[in-house]
Design brief:
The chain is an alpha+beta fold and 95 residues long. Helices cover 37% and strands 22% of the residues.
Length: 95
């Protein structure tokens, strides 16, 4: 999978609502009502990552979960990153 160009990234960012771009990385933080809820979310993320074979960095700090997404193999952002973000939108975060 090849690196997306700046133009291609700019075209995909509006669909990645709530995500921030930091260079070669897309990041988003959620705060859950409890540690247990945070871990449930992480478990859902891990199942999705295994299914797609694309793995976000997962940072857990009590009730806060931050995901960082990048394609390390190519040192940039690829379609796989945006595809993972769109899959992640199906995970409930408000229960
Ligand atoms: C061979 C295999 O597809 C690669 O090692 C994959 C696995 N999952 C990956 N996930 C992420 N986020 N970045 C990668 O570069 C990556 N590489």
């Amino acid at each position: 999978m090849s690196k997306l160009t700046e133009t291609e990234i700019a075209a995909r960012l509006p669909a990645a609502k709530g995500w921030e771009r930091h260079g070669d990385m897309l990041t988003r933080t959620w705060q859950f009502p409890s540690f247990r809820r945070a871990i449930e979310f992480v478990n859902n993320v891990s199942a999705l990552a295994e299914k797609s074979g694309h793995y976000p960095e997962i940072h857990i700090q009590f009730r806060d979960v931050r995901l960082e997404i990048s394609t390390h193999d190519v040192g940039g952002l690829t379609e796989r990153d945006f595809s993972l973000i769109s899959d992640l939108a199906a995970i409930p975060t408000d229960r």
